[in-house]
Amino acid sequence: MSTTDPRHDDATHDDATHDDAPHDAPDRHSDQDAARLDHGPADHMSTPEPEAPSAASLPTLGVVGTLRWTWRQLTSMRVALMLLMLLAIVSVPGSVLPQKPVDRPAVARYIVENPTLGPLLDRLGFFDVYASAWFSAVYLLLFISLVGCILPRTRVHLRALRARPPRTPRRFDRFTVRGEVVVAAAPDDVVAAARAALRGPVRLLPRFRVDDDVEAGGARTVAAERGYVRESGNLLFHLALVGILVSVATGQLLHYRGQALVVEGRGFANSVTDYDTFEAGTAFDPRSLVPFTLTLDRFTSEFTPDARALDFLAEVTVAEPGEEPREADIRVNSPLTVGEAKVYLQGNGYAPDVTVRDAAGEVAFAGAVPFLPEDPVYTSRGVVKVPDVSTGEQIGLVGYLLPTAEVTEAGARSIYPQPFEPLLVLTVWTGDLGLDDGVPQNVYELDDSEMTNLLDDEGRPVTLFVRPGQTVDLPDGLGSFTWEGLPRFVALDLRHDPALTWILVSSLLALAGLSLSLFAPRRRLWLRIAPGEGRTVVTAAALARSDDVGLQAELDRLLGAVGERCGPVLEPAAHDSDDDAPARAGAGGRHDL
Amino acid sequence: MTLGELSHIIVWGATAAYAVALLAFSFDLASLADRVGATRRDGAVPVSAGAARATTASAAVGTVTAASTLTDARPTGRLAVPVDGGGPRRAASIGMAVTVVGLLLHVVGAVTRGLAAGRVPWANMYEFTLVGTLVTIVTFLALCRTRDLRFLGSFVLGLTTVALGVSLVGFYTPAAGVEPALQSPWLVIHVSIATISTGLFTVAFAASGLQLLKDSREARLRTADGDAAVAGRGLAGSAWRWLDVLPSLRDLEALSFRINAVGFVLWTFTLIAGAIWAEAAWGRYWGWDPKEVWSFVVWVVYAAYLHARTTRGWSGRRAAWFSLVGYATVIFNYTAVNLVFQGLHSYSGV
Ligand code: HEM
């Protein structure tokens, strides 16, 4: 701090570890004044950061010294800055490379297509960037730095909160923002008026902290400061960031998430075994699942004529233990809350209800088989697996469901997502489905390693075209296939994260703190009230912590209020002014920047 | 003609108006530079336009007037050229007027687009650009009410004209409704705030870019110091003389900071609102989707910018670079991530 700093008596900021403080440049537009009042442009916002010993002196530091040196480095603004940039950089690969948590098959494809680079990237964690050691290291270091940074600042700030406004500087002429008013009232009245104006209308929430004093020469002074909330906001912001991190981590430990595919008319129960996939944090207790049941009564969808989706609606009935079953709707943007969890409508499609009879005429399979849509017109792919044949080999039927089929010479395709002309196009396989060896299988894929595709006389695969209600014979006397109906299915995503509220609260606190720290003005105003012959000359100066367009207006408002309360206002005489106040000519309401 | 087609034509009209305003503002800068050039030898130490100004602000409170004085600085250099000193800037006035006309067309274009689609007009890339540029212009005009920022005109209008042109040619899609995932009040909140921050970052980017150019020119001129051979070349040459009439480096930095600060707060809000929406629509508040990754990168870079401004040795020039890098990530997030990356945010409509 230069000794000419008008607020050198205000030591509170100066020992902040990572101080924000010395923005207290007066208006930084003025090169000269800034140079005199502050540190000059080079470090106008410099921080009295602890001077780290240079690397050369490191060997003599010893273990404790080295630790302390490391800590200081880590908690310095410069390192925080580097870590922030690093965080931005290490986030990027996750947007370029496929990520396991999002699209595992894409990762597998990438590794196959890039046999040299792929496995290497995999080992280095590039396919799960946000859980990788290096990504975690960067953000953890950043947060350690953050905590190391805010703790001392909080201590300093708590002390500053009790501090008094800095003493009135002896000379005002160094300040760029100044003012003057001459009134008839006595100095005491002026002081009282100034105090009242500075305190503002709300007694409990004073706008300024105000002190007044009497100088050796007999002049009265008023010193006022506002904007402590700026630093409070900044600390709140940084603390709230820690809050977000801690809540997110807690949520990771306690959350669970399950997916279930539910066909119209069917339901599922909220238990780990009833989900198609289920995944939970390490601290999650499966017994904590509320055992409700959910039944899909109806699913409806709406599309534009050019097949763009307009609306999806799942009508369900939920039964929570000890409660009457109730009906509810689930839409894409409005999940259903039930038993602590939220149920999302994640996908939908068709699940043709089919019956397969084997060569002996026995029903070998009956049920709804979900076909997964692959494009906007719901060309859907699925497999009917028939393991329980009474005689002969197992049967697999693979193919497509076309909701609105258009059959031409070139083949069949779907032209609209709604089931106006549904058609099943299936090929037939026989052999061993591979279901009995205990290895879990994808129900939407046929493992054809032990199966053969049935061919017609010309050596082409036999293709069945089936319409709803039809029964067709399977080739080679394998049996028959009947399409009974076309219910829809929904893919539900069920999720519970107990930390959501805390994450939201922390985020909003961060936003509030940030706004305060960026927009709450930190201002100091001083008045010198000099008694004269029947007139009291009030000179004033103001200083803001950073560039502050409203500073002049604030000072003008104060002087205006003083003039109003202590009127009448007199014409200032040239000699009243204690400095070389420049000409008042030229009403410039529009000041540059 | 449908309302959507009408909107399309009106937006072309707005773009044309902006192009005209761009010409006017550029002409203004060039003639300002000429005025400066006429009064001093090129190669002399440049003096910021804002260096010599005594502005008196007076506040009238009832019948009382407290006159107080704001001196920006006393003249420092060998020569001081106030921006307004050399008479009226007719070209700049024309630029402002035509910008206002363009803005009116722009607003009508956006409103008719929204009416034609039956929803808010910011659901695909054409519309984001339409509204983002609208915010840019509104920000520019609003800032001009309290400060003389007409020097920024050519840059702001240049960026706007290019962005609108590119989106009209490359991103245009007919007005239509939106898919289920977009049918949410969050579309109104999240996307509009994101668009507004983008508009703000654009104006701040222009200021930071100018700051860097001016800084480089001043450094060149200082090193040249009378050496005519050096003084005449590159940034030090007379083609860049218009940089001398811009406000001081500090003023440019302060301007850029203030706008970036507002933009950053709004961007923070965008992230929060996006997470809330994602929680409702996709069942998770954050999933490192490419758009989420890049929005995060944008946020972190601007956070770094704010830190740089308060770190010793990093304020000024270096901080300005952060502002440029930040804007580059904004644009990348907006273009490449929408058009190239596969993610849940595939709403570009292109
Ligand atoms: C997760 C990491 C961090 C983020 C996202 C972050 C973000 C921010 C933001 C947005 C601001 C702007 C508010 C303002 O200018 O008033 C800020 C200010 C500040 N940050 Fe951080 N910060 C982080 C970590 C740190 C760390 C590690 C330190 C200390 C080494 C630190 C020290 C400061 C200081 C001193 C300010 C006040 C600057 C001023 O006076 O304006 N921050 N931070």
Automatic annotation (TrEMBL), chain A:
It comes from the Bacteria. Residues 1-57, 570-593 are annotated as: Disordered. It is found in: Membrane. The keyword Transmembrane helix applies. Keywords: Cytochrome c-type biogenesis, Membrane, Transmembrane, Transmembrane helix. GO terms for biological process: cytochrome complex assembly. Residues 77-556 form the ResB-like domain. It is a multi-pass membrane protein. GO terms for cellular component: membrane. Its main location: membrane. Residues 47-57 have a biased composition (Low complexity). Residues 1-42 have a biased composition (Basic and acidic residues). The chain crosses the membrane at residues 79-97, 129-151, 235-254, 499-520. The keyword Transport does not apply. PANTHER family: CYTOCHROME C BIOGENESIS PROTEIN CCS1, CHLOROPLASTIC. This is Cytochrome C biogenesis protein ResB. It comes from Actinotalea ferrariae CF5-4.
Automatic annotation (TrEMBL), chain B:
It is found in: Membrane. One of its GO terms (biological process) is cytochrome complex assembly. Residues 122-345 form the Cytochrome c assembly protein domain. The chain crosses the membrane at residues 6-25, 94-116, 122-144, 151-175, 187-213, 259-278, 293-308, 320-341. GO terms for molecular function: heme binding. GO terms for cellular component: plasma membrane. It is a multi-pass membrane protein. Keywords: Cytochrome c-type biogenesis, Membrane, Transmembrane, Transmembrane helix. It comes from the Bacteria. InterPro entries: Cyt_c_assembly, Cyt_c_biogenesis_CcsA, Cyt_c_biogenesis_CcsA/CcmC. The keyword Transmembrane helix applies. This is Cytochrome C biogenesis protein CcsB. It comes from Actinotalea ferrariae CF5-4.
